[in-house]
Design a protein that fits this description.
Blueprint lengths: L10 H13 L1 H4 L13 E3 L3 E4 L5 H21 L12 E6 L2 H8 L10 E4 L4 E5 H4 L2 H21 L8 H12 L11 H6 L17 H22 L3 H9 L5 H9 L3 H12 L2 H65 L1
Length: 340
């Protein structure tokens, strides 16, 4: 259902991603009929019980080895034991589109921005392949959803008490890409115009509207990334452990960082209004804008230089003509004086 930024490059991850994309290439190529694959109701691995319609069985089977690695990585990210034998299996259900996802959830419909959804209480992930668009997006989306499930691995008793903005922010940081980023939300301009929602508005979720959901995702990711930058990678685990004692997120933040949530958010909003945030948020756009401006301005600058040079040449020619005339007059005058 979502995705996040900042995945650092490593050759091992790159190789795994390449293998995953290659395995899912039939989906990207749009192969409409995979019915020659033996039809089975479900597949299983150490951590997953997989359910898929016949046309998605190949994709589902190809994803399992990579998903086992992603799940172990997600548990290590939260400093949990990655051994799959310690946890109940995860039900991974593949569907084609959002109507099928709604049916799997027992709903009439789902928001039009959903690509996947995790149900931690049931240890279930439902992913729709068409909204995910391509195999790379599928992998990022699945990384995102695995983090939601891993939250329930260690803190299932109080998962409902964890604000949506916090666990969604963590999921995006882990996934490595911002979900709904094509909405091009600018936190800088919204903060500068005092049009930035409070995080508490995203306590229970991000709503139906895709644009406001994209604002919620962007804020959540930026807030969690800031916490990790200031207090280290273990801050998420420490906050969750305090919340496991029955304490709210506000108290957990204060006990782990020494700063309350409101102070954190005010500082966060000030940082979003800074020039550093502007440059970070619009670095590529600014570079593109400057490049386009130079391309457009270059002919104008050249034309202006030609005109200026022409004026100087005309002025120089006129001055030279006056000097020549003056010299002739002086010469003629001198000749007349000598002859007299």
């Amino acid at each position: 259902m979502k995705v996040a930024p900042g995945m650092t490059f490593s050759p091992r991850k790159f190789a795994r991603l390449a293998i995953f994309l290659l395995a899912l290439s039939p989906l990207v190529a749009g192969a409409p009929n995979l019915c020659h694959i033996p039809q089975t109701d479900s597949q299983e691995s150490a951590s997953f019980k997989v359910e898929a319609p016949p046309e998605l069985e190949r994709v589902a089977a190809a994803s399992l080895p990579e998903l086992e690695k992603v799940l172990a990585e997600a548990r290590e990210w939260l400093f949990l034991d990655p051994n799959p034998a310690l946890y109940p299996p995860i039900h991974l259900q593949w569907v084609l589109d959002r109507p099928a996802m709604a049916q799997a959830l027992g709903r009439e419909r789902v928001p039009r921005w959903y690509a996947a959804v995790a149900v931690p209480s049931q240890r279930k992930v439902i992913i729709a392949t068409r909204p995910a668009a391509d195999s790379r997006q599928l992998l990022v989306t699945l990384r995102h959803e695995m983090m939601h499930i891993v939250f329930s691995d260690g803190w299932s008793a109080n998962f409902r008490e964890i604000p949506a903005w916090f666990h969604e922010g963590c999921a995006q940081v882990f996934a490595g890409e911002l979900y709904l980023q094509d909405m091009e939300v600018s936190l800088f301009w919204r903060a500068l115009s005092d049009n930035l929602p409070r995080l508490i508005e995203f306590h229970d979720g991000f709503g139906e509207d895709p644009y406001m959901a994209s604002v919620g995702y962007a804020m959540s990711e930026a807030y969690v990334r800031r916490l990790i930058r200031l207090y280290g990678e273990g801050i998420v685990r420490r906050i969750l452990d305090v919340m496991a004692e029955g304490k709210a997120i506000d108290q957990a933040l204060f006990e782990t960082t020494g700063v309350n949530r409101l102070e954190h958010e005010e500082t966060f909003r000030k940082e979003l209004r800074s020039w550093t945030a502007l440059m970070g948020n619009f670095q590529q756009q600014l570079f593109l804008g400057v490049t386009l401006a130079l391309v457009v301005a270059l002919p104008v600058i050249r034309a202006h230089r030609r005109q200026r040079r022409k004026r100087w040449e005309e002025k120089w020619d006129g001055t030279q003509h006056e000097e020549d005339t003056t010299w002739v007059d002086m010469t003629q005058g001198a000749e007349r004086e000598s002859s007299s």
